[in-house]
Write a structure and sequence with these properties.
The complex is a heterodimer. Chain A is built from 12 helices and no strands. The chains are: A mainly alpha, B mainly alpha.
C-alpha cells in the first residue's frame, strides 16, 4: 500500500470514527432511551434496552394529555405550510420587482431587508399589537409573525436568483401581451423552482422547529406546536425519560424526511444565499 | 418599443413590474415587525401593563443597568456570542478543509456534520442536558474511563454558560462547515498547483491561499453566528433556564423572564438594549470586514 493510499484510508477512518462518536452517538442515545421502560431510561445509560418498548412508549406519548401531540402536529403542519406558502409567494414578488425595477425606493427596501435579517423583534409590543388586532393566541397571528420574521431571508434568495433569469424573457412575454400578473405567476414563478425549493425546505425546517415565537405568541396547551409539547412534556413527566426521548424522536421525523430528500439542495441553497447574498 | 422616450420606458417598466407587488410583504412586515420595533422605543420609557402606561423616562434603562443580574445577562450574551462565533469559525474552517479534501466517505461525513442543524434545538438541548448529567451522564462516564472526574457541566456556575455554548457549536457547526465548503470549492485549483510547484508546503498553502481566499466565507460565518449568538434564547431556556443563579442568563432570557413577571416596560427596555447591542456589533463589523476585502 502506498503512503498516499494509506493516508487516504487513515484520515477517512479516523474522521468517520470521530464524527460517529461526536455527532451520531447523541442521536443513538435518544433512540435507545426511547425504547426503554421508565426505570431503565431513568438511569440515562447508553445501553441497548433489556426489553424494547417501542409500541407502548409511542402510544403513551401520543395519548398523553388528551392526544396533545396530535393537536400539536396538526397546528405545526398548518403553521408551516401556510407560512411557507406566504413566504414563497410574497418573497418572490418583492424579489422580482426589486431586482427588475430599480427606483428611489430600492435603497430603502434593501435596508429594510437587512434590518429584518439582523434586528431582534420587539416582543412585548408585538403581543400588545396582536391583542389589539385580535390575533394574539391565534394560529393566524403566529403564521403572520413567522412570515414577517422570515421575509428578509426569502427576498434575498429570490432577488439573487431572479438576477440570473434573462430580462429578454420578460420582454418577450410583454410583447405577447402578458400583463404583470401573468408575467409573474405564469412565466417567472415557475422558473424560480430551484430557489423556491431551497426556501421551502430551509424555512419549513426553521418554522417547524421554532420554539420562541410559539412560546410568546401562541401560548396555551390547546394551541401547542410540536416544540412546545416537548417542553410541557419535560415538566410533566419529570422522570419519564423514555417518553421524553420518544417525543423528541417523533418530532425529529419531519426534518429527517426533508433531510433525506433535499440534503444536496439545502446545502447548495444555503451557500448560494449565504456567500453571495 | 425602441422609440419610446425615457418617460415611456419608465411607464412600461412600472406596468410590467408594478409596485403593488411589494404590498402584501410590506403590510405584513410593516405591521408586525417595523411598527412594534418603533413602538418598543416608546414603551421602553414607560411603566406598562399592556392596557395602561405611564411615562417614566429612562428609569427602565437605569434599573436594567443597576441590577447586577440584568448586567450579567448582558455580559453573558457577549461571552456566549463571541465563544460560539469564534469556535464556529475555527471548527467550520477545519471541517470545511477536511470535507473538501480527497477523504474517504466524504458525502457521508458532510451529511453527518450537517444533520444537527435541522433538528429541534429544544430536543438537542434536552438530550444534552441528560448527556451532561454530573453523575449519570454519558459525557462524564466517558471522561471517567480515563480516570478523570468530569465537572457538573450545567450546574456548576463556572462551566454552565460554556457548556451551553458548546452545545450551540455542536448543533450549528454544520452550517459554518457548509459555508466554508462553498468558499473553499470556489478557490481556483491553479493557485494550489502553482504554489506546489514553487515548493510551498501544506501549511503555507493554507496560510497564503485558503485563509485569505476563503475570507468571504469567514465573514459570513462570523456575522451569521454573531447575530445568532447575540439573540440566542431557546437552547439556553431548554438547558438551564438562565441558572444556576443567573449565570447563564442572556439578554433574550432576561426579556422573557421580565415579560413573564409582568414587567412589560422593563422587558421592552431589554429588547431595546438587545437591538442596540446587535446593531452596535454587527453593523460596524460587517462594514469593516467587507471594506478590507475590497482593498485587498
Amino acid at each position: 500500500m502506498t503512503t498516499k493510499k494509506f493516508k487516504y484510508y487513515a484520515t477517512g477512518t479516523l474522521s468517520l470514527a470521530l464524527a460517529f462518536f461526536v455527532f451520531v452517538v447523541p442521536f443513538l442515545f435518544i433512540i435507545v432511551n426511547a425504547l426503554k421502560d421508565k426505570p431503565e431510561a431513568a438511569l440515562l445509560h447508553f445501553t441497548w434496552p433489556s426489553e424494547t418498548h417501542l409500541w407502548e412508549n409511542l402510544i403513551a406519548v401520543v395519548e398523553a394529555r388528551d392526544y396533545m401531540l396530535i393537536t400539536a402536529f396538526i397546528n405545526s403542519i398548518i403553521l408551516t405550510v401556510v407560512a411557507v406558502t406566504g413566504l414563497v409567494v410574497f418573497g418572490a414578488m418583492v424579489g422580482f420587482v426589486l431586482q427588475r425595477r430599480p427606483s428611489r425606493w430600492s435603497g430603502l427596501i434593501n435596508f429594510m431587508v437587512l434590518a429584518g435579517l439582523i434586528m431582534p423583534p420587539a416582543v412585548v409590543p408585538t403581543i400588545w399589537l396582536l391583542q389589539w388586532l385580535g390575533l394574539f393566541k391565534t394560529l393566524s397571528g403566529l403564521i403572520l409573525i413567522e412570515i414577517a420574521y422570515s421575509l428578509s431571508f426569502s427576498v434575498l434568495l429570490f432577488r439573487a436568483f431572479i438576477a440570473t433569469i434573462p430580462r429578454e424573457l420578460d420582454e418577450a412575454a410583454i410583447l405577447e401581451g402578458a400583463g404583470p400578473f401573468t408575467l409573474f405567476f405564469r412565466i417567472v414563478l415557475p422558473l424560480l423552482k430551484p430557489v423556491a425549493v431551497t426556501v421551502i425546505v430551509v424555512q419549513s425546517v426553521a418554522i417547524f422547529n421554532d420554539f420562541t415565537n410559539p412560546l410568546y405568541y401562541l401560548p396555551g396547551a390547546k394551541n401547542a406546536t410540536v416544540q412546545l409539547t416537548l417542553f410541557n412534556f419535560q415538566s410533566m413527566f419529570n422522570t419519564s425519560y423514555n417518553l421524553l426521548f420518544m417525543n423528541i424522536l417523533i418530532i425529529t421525523i419531519p426534518p429527517l424526511i426533508m433531510f433525506l430528500f433535499f440534503n444536496r439542495q439545502i446545502v447548495e441553497g444555503m451557500t448560494a444565499g449565504a456567500v453571495k447574498g | 418599443m425602441n422609440i419610446q422616450g425615457k418617460k415611456g420606458t419608465r411607464r412600461g417598466l412600472a406596468a410590467a413590474y408594478p409596485s403593488w407587488f411589494y404590498l402584501p410583504a410590506a403590510i405584513i412586515f410593516g405591521v408586525l415587525f417595523l411598527f412594534p420595533t418603533f413602538a418598543s422605543l416608546f414603551f421602553s420609557l414607560t411603566r406598562w401593563t399592556l392596557f395602561q402606561y405611564s411615562f417614566i423616562g429612562l428609569d427602565n434603562f437605569r434599573q436594567f443597568f443597576s441590577e447586577p443580574f440584568l448586567v450579567w445577562g448582558l455580559v453573558n450574551t457577549l461571552i456566549y456570542a463571541v465563544v460560539t462565533s469564534g469556535s464556529k469559525v475555527v471548527l467550520g474552517m477545519l471541517l470545511g478543509i477536511l470535507l473538501t479534501s480527497n477523504v474517504m466517505v466524504r458525502g457521508l461525513l458532510r451529511a453527518i456534520v450537517f444533520f444537527p442543524v435541522l433538528v429541534s434545538t429544544i430536543g438537542v438541548g434536552i438530550t444534552f442536558t441528560m448527556l451532561m448529567h454530573p453523575t449519570n451522564g454519558l459525557i462524564n462516564d466517558v471522561i471517567a474511563t480515563f480516570g478523570v472526574k468530569g465537572p457538573a457541566w450545567l450546574t456548576d456556575p463556572r462551566f454552565a454558560l460554556l457548556s451551553v455554548a458548546f452545545v450551540d457549536v455542536w448543533k450549528g457547526v454544520g452550517l459554518a462547515t457548509v459555508i466554508y465548503i462553498a468558499g473553499i470549492v470556489s478557490i481556483p485549483a491553479e493557485y494550489y498547483e502553482a504554489a506546489k510547484m514553487d515548493g510551498a508546503n501544506a501549511l503555507q498553502r493554507f496560510w497564503n491561499i485558503t485563509l485569505p481566499l476563503a475570507r468571504p466565507a469567514t465573514i459570513t460565518v462570523i456575522i451569521l453566528s454573531l447575530i445568532g449568538g447575540l439573540r440566542s434564547f431557546d437552547l439556553i431556556w431548554a438547558m438551564t433556564k438562565g441558572g444556576p443563579g443567573f449565570t447563564t442568563d442572556v439578554v433574550a432570557s432576561v426579556i422573557y423572564k421580565q415579560y413573564q413577571a409582568g414587567f412589560y416596560g422593563l422587558s421592552t427596555a431589554g429588547n431595546v438594549v438587545l437591538f442596540v447591542l446587535v446593531a452596535a456589533i454587527v453593523v460596524p463589523l460587517s462594514f469593516a470586514l467587507n471594506r478590507k476585502e475590497v482593498e485587498a
